[in-house]
Structures are given as structure tokens and as C-alpha cells.
Design brief:
Blueprint lengths: L2 H55 L24 H26 L2 H30 L1
Length: 140
């Protein structure tokens, strides 16, 4: 089998695996978002009920306060968008896949393979020389 065909086959398998992982992750994020929506609706109902009870207990004239709390900023949305959930869920794995792809591409470059072949030849020659020197010492 040609190296090009082998690389393409491995790339297809990796791509199919990545698509499967993405599909599972998106489904899981969607289920979690729905569960959070349901829990949030329950909490909102509970807060509304507590506010109604508190309103019934409060006197008609509130006591004069020595301080006032004011918020100048807009309130932060309580429910994240689907895009933010997917981005947070998939961000780290995508970065890892990109780093792995970069490393594989770098390792397969021609100059890298040539450098490794050079290092292997150099180490082989060094060991051969060391063996010859050892034989000469034993022979004396």
C-alpha cells in the first residue's frame, strides 16, 4: 500500500472519529442545556413564590434606609447561549487535536526525516568506531 493512501486512510479514520465525538458532545450539551432550563424554571417559580410571601409580610411603609444600593451595570444573562455552551465544551478538545495535527505534520516533514536519518547514521558510526577502539585495546 502506498504511503499516501495510508496517510489518507488514517486521516479519514481520524476525521470520522472527530465527527462522532463532536456529535456526541453536541447532543450531551443540548441535554444539559435542557436540564438547566428546567431547573432554572423551577428556581424562578420558587423565587417568585418567596417574593410573594415576603411582600405579604412587609409593612406598607418601608423603614428609611441609611444607604442605597444601586447597580449601574446591565444584569448578566442567566442562561448561556447554545453557542457559548458548545464553544466551552469543544474548545479544549479542538485545541488538543490541532496541536496533535501540527506535531504529526512536523514529524512527517522531509527535512525532519532526513535529520533523523543523519542522527541514526552518526550514532551507528560512533558505535562502530568505539567497537574498533575496544577491539584494539583488547588486542594489545
Amino acid at each position: 500500500m502506498s504511503p499516501v493512501v495510508l496517510v489518507l486512510a488514517v486521516a479519514c479514520v481520524l476525521l470520522a472519529t472527530l465527527v462522532g465525538v463532536l456529535a456526541v458532545t453536541v447532543r450531551r450539551a443540548d441535554r444539559e442545556a435542557k436540564a438547566h432550563e428546567h431547573a432554572l424554571a423551577g428556581l424562578r417559580a420558587e423565587v417568585a413564590e418567596l417574593a410573594a410571601r415576603q411582600h405579604e409580610r412587609e409593612p406598607t411603609q418601608p423603614a428609611a434606609a441609611d444607604y442605597v444600593i444601586a447597580f449601574d451595570e446591565q444584569p448578566v444573562p442567566t442562561q448561556p447561549s447554545t453557542q457559548r455552551v458548545v464553544s466551552a465544551t469543544l474548545g479544549e478538545p479542538l485545541i488538543k487535536v490541532a496541536a496533535l495535527g501540527h506535531g504529526v505534520r512536523r514529524a512527517l516533514r522531509e527535512e525532519r526525516r532526513a535529520h533523523l536519518a543523519y542522527q541514526v547514521r552518526r550514532e551507528y558510526r560512533r558505535r562502530r568506531r568505539a567497537s574498533r577502539v575496544a577491539q584494539r585495546r583488547r588486542g594489545r
